[in-house]
Design goal:
single chain; mainly alpha; Arp2/3 complex 21 kDa subunit ARPC3; 8 helices; Energy-coupled thiamine transporter ThiT; membrane; transmembrane helix; Thia_Transptr_ThiT
């Protein structure tokens, strides 16, 4: 009986944390984040989402990312003209945002490194790269298939999508690495779950 209550309480804590992270990620998406005149974007919400996935694992990370994608579609996608058709909307919002939860594949390894007193910076970068790369790969596919008409007339739509989405991936990785270096000790505290 006690074990069931503890399991239920833990599930509620994970769910509550996920809701807070989704709200924070969505709020951060309203901060201007375009770089220059292009469509390369720094997505500030990726940072709390990556921390949550490392803290709680891949399944809660994927779930929180999916909810964030649906919320972003409703609050920004429909109103900003980022929704062209249902398939494109599903790929670029729920699926792409859920992909960030793949960062959670490194949850156990990162936590073990922290608990062993070692620096997890390299592992965090590797697993964050995976989640971010899959997200921007999905945007790249949607860019080539659905947004090709918006590419400059002299440029192949796939090259254009690669430049925009690859640039966004690189910009977000740079942001993550800078934050990891500056806030290294804080990241460790956010990732380890206190019982």
């Amino acid at each position: 009986m006690q074990k069931n209550i503890a399991t239920r309480n833990n599930g509620l804590v994970v769910l509550t944390e996920g809701a807070i992270i989704v709200a924070a990620a969505q709020a951060l998406s309203f901060v201007p984040h375009d770089l220059g005149v292009s469509s390369i974007q720094v997505e500030y919400g990726l940072i709390p989402m990556a921390i949550y996935a490392l803290r709680r694992g891949v399944k809660p990370g994927l779930t929180a990312g999916l909810v964030w994608g649906i919320l972003d579609l409703i609050l920004k996608g429909f109103s900003s003209g980022s929704f062209l058709n249902p398939l494109q909307g599903i790929v670029e919002f729920p699926l792409a945002f859920a992909a960030v939860g793949l960062v959670g594949l490194g949850s156990v390894q990162v936590k073990n490194k922290i608990q062993d007193g070692k620096n997890p910076l390299g592992l965090i970068i590797i697993y964050s790269s995976l989640g971010f790369l899959v997200k921007y790969f999905l945007h790249f596919l949607a860019g080539g298939i659905y947004w090709g008409a918006y590419a400059p007339k002299t440029m192949n739509p796939w090259i254009y999508s690669l430049v925009i989405n690859g640039g966004s991936f690189i910009a977000n990785m740079i942001m993550l690495i800078v934050l990891l270096i500056v806030l290294n000790r804080v990241f460790k505290r956010f990732i380890i779950v206190k019982e």
